[in-house]
């Protein structure tokens, strides 16, 4: 018991520090992409490539950890992240930024290995509580990371951001080497829920689950459009020295923004806003959602109803974002986005876990994560393309329309889950 608790604490530290490092970079990638001449479309690709590499590498790292052990896979992937952050710190060109994101994306697939560690050291009865440790680490990373990134970017640019993130990985590497024992049990079969096309097809055939997967893909694609373009949007519209005009250029490259004071202010302001999203999301997911869903025995369809409300709030926030008159107005607008996403994400995942057959739960959850990853690949690239071709408002108007359509589909999901709940009560 003591060894299991200690291992869980180490896993929490690993995931939390990984996600803090990830959160530090996300609001700042647009700032430093523009510094080196990236168009908004290229900034979107800079964010998408990380998720693409992570999607490809996660099942590979998972299989390697089944064969060679969790500990060596975690150690090697952390060395990769360390190299990626150092490369980001000293990058002075766009190709080096891309290379850093590719390396970090390949190494970032180790979250699935950390989940495997939790599965190894917990019983089925305690599995949900153990996975909650990873969820808490995600929340902590996304709350602290953006704020730290803003302050570090304003103080020392990409050098300070990269070196700080590399330092977090070095701490992780030390903790894993000295304090995390090997947890894989010899002869135990793998979980068998690698993110395969066959697994996704089977999950799509399940009545409630299939609709949730579609909603997850649409919502994540829309929200990632905002995340992938927001720093560039902020840079071009809301700075005290006046808006920075979009420079002429092609689809991929434009004239670089070289005013360091402008870049520092953009770093700080984007960091504050993303930190606000993280704090509000953590508060809503940590307390409000749990109270509103009511726990075991609550009325069927409540999760679907809350998700639908979340879609409405998110669509409103996205629609208001391009018409905000000044920087201060961005805080209530981003607050709508924070509350909306905090309602949608846990409620959809709860619906998937509730309506998936127990014998296929691992495969279904793997497919659910794959649809989310696909949205994080498509969203930034689509948002950047719309921003470059049609202007700053285009990604947010498009994303608002997508989420509004998801809300309409969510209304039918409410009826579907209530019918499924009523049928289950009659059978019991």
From TrEMBL:
<keyword id="KW-0472">Membrane</keyword>
<dbReference type="GO" id="GO:0022857">
    <property type="term" value="F:transmembrane transporter activity"/>
</dbReference>
<keyword id="KW-0813">Transport</keyword>
<comment type="function">
    <text>Resistance to tetracycline by an active tetracycline efflux. This is an energy-dependent process that decreases the accumulation of the antibiotic in whole cells. This protein functions as a metal-tetracycline/H(+) antiporter.</text>
</comment>
<feature type="transmembrane region" description="Helical">
    <location>
        <begin position="364"/>
        <end position="387"/>
    </location>
</feature>
<feature type="transmembrane region" description="Helical">
    <location>
        <begin position="7"/>
        <end position="29"/>
    </location>
</feature>
<protein>
    <submittedName>
        <fullName>Multidrug resistance protein</fullName>
    </submittedName>
</protein>
<comment type="similarity">
    <text>Belongs to the major facilitator superfamily. TCR/Tet family.</text>
</comment>
<feature type="transmembrane region" description="Helical">
    <location>
        <begin position="131"/>
        <end position="153"/>
    </location>
</feature>
<feature type="transmembrane region" description="Helical">
    <location>
        <begin position="304"/>
        <end position="323"/>
    </location>
</feature>
<dbReference type="Pfam" id="PF07690">
    <property type="entry name" value="MFS_1"/>
</dbReference>
<feature type="transmembrane region" description="Helical">
    <location>
        <begin position="393"/>
        <end position="415"/>
    </location>
</feature>
<feature type="domain" description="Major facilitator superfamily (MFS) profile">
    <location>
        <begin position="7"/>
        <end position="418"/>
    </location>
</feature>
<feature type="transmembrane region" description="Helical">
    <location>
        <begin position="41"/>
        <end position="61"/>
    </location>
</feature>
<feature type="transmembrane region" description="Helical">
    <location>
        <begin position="329"/>
        <end position="352"/>
    </location>
</feature>
<dbReference type="InterPro" id="IPR036259">
    <property type="entry name" value="MFS_trans_sf"/>
</dbReference>
<dbReference type="InterPro" id="IPR011701">
    <property type="entry name" value="MFS"/>
</dbReference>
<dbReference type="InterPro" id="IPR020846">
    <property type="entry name" value="MFS_dom"/>
</dbReference>
<feature type="transmembrane region" description="Helical">
    <location>
        <begin position="159"/>
        <end position="180"/>
    </location>
</feature>
<feature type="transmembrane region" description="Helical">
    <location>
        <begin position="272"/>
        <end position="292"/>
    </location>
</feature>
<dbReference type="GO" id="GO:0016020">
    <property type="term" value="C:membrane"/>
</dbReference>
<feature type="transmembrane region" description="Helical">
    <location>
        <begin position="73"/>
        <end position="92"/>
    </location>
</feature>
<feature type="transmembrane region" description="Helical">
    <location>
        <begin position="98"/>
        <end position="119"/>
    </location>
</feature>
<dbReference type="InterPro" id="IPR001958">
    <property type="entry name" value="Tet-R_TetA/multi-R_MdtG-like"/>
</dbReference>
<keyword id="KW-1133">Transmembrane helix</keyword>
<keyword id="KW-0812">Transmembrane</keyword>
<feature type="transmembrane region" description="Helical">
    <location>
        <begin position="201"/>
        <end position="224"/>
    </location>
</feature>
<dbReference type="InterPro" id="IPR005829">
    <property type="entry name" value="Sugar_transporter_CS"/>
</dbReference>
């Amino acid at each position: 018991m003591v060894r299991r608790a200690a291992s869980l604490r180490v896993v929490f530290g690993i995931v939390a520090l990984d996600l803090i490092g990830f959160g530090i970079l996300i609001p700042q990638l647009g700032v430093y992409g523009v510094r080196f001449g990236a168009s908004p479309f290229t900034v979107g690709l800079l964010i998408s490539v990380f998720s693409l590499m992570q999607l490809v590498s996660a099942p590979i790292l998972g299989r390697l950890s089944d064969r060679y052990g969790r500990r060596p896979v975690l150690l090697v992937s952390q060395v990769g992240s360390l190299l990626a952050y150092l490369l980001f710190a000293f990058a002075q060109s766009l190709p080096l930024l891309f290379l850093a994101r590719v390396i970090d994306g390949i190494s970032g697939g180790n979250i699935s290995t950390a989940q495997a560690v939790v599965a190894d050291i917990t019983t089925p009865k305690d599995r949900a509580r153990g996975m909650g440790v990873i969820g808490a680490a995600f929340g902590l990373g996304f709350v602290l990371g953006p704020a730290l990134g803003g302050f570090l970017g304003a103080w020392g640019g990409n050098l300070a951001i990269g070196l700080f993130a590399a330092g977090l990985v070095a701490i992780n590497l030390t903790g894993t080497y000295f304090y995390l024992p090997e947890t894989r049990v010899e002869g135990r079969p793998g979980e068998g829920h690698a993110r395969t096309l066959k697994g996704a097809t089977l999950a799509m055939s399940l009545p409630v689950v299939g609709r949730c997967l579609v909603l997850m893909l649409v919502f994540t694609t829309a929200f990632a459009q905002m995340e992938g373009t927001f720093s560039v949007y902020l840079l071009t519209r809301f700075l005290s020295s006046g808006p920075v005009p979009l420079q002429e250029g092609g689809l991929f490259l434009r004239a670089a923004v070289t005013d360091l004071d402008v870049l520092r202010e953009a770093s700080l302001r984007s960091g504050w806003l993303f930190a606000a999203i993280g704090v509000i999301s953590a508060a809503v997911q940590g307390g409000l959602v749990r109270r509103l869903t009511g726990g075991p025995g609550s009325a069927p369809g409540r999760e679907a109803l809350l998700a639908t409300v979340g879609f409405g709030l998110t669509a409103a926030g996205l629609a208001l974002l391009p018409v905000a008159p000044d920087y201060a107005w961005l805080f209530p607008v981003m607050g709508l986005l924070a509350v909306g996403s905090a309602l949608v994400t846990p409620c959809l995942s709860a619906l998937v876990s509730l309506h998936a057959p127990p014998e296929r739960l691992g495969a279904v959850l793997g497919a659910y994560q794959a649809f989310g990853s696909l949205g994080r690949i498509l969203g930034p690239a689509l948002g950047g393309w719309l921003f470059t071709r049609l202007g700053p408002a285009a990604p947010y108007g498009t994303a608002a329309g997508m989420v509004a359509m998801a809300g309409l589909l969510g209304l039918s999901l409410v009826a579907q889950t209530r019918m499924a709940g009523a049928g289950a009560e009659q059978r019991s």
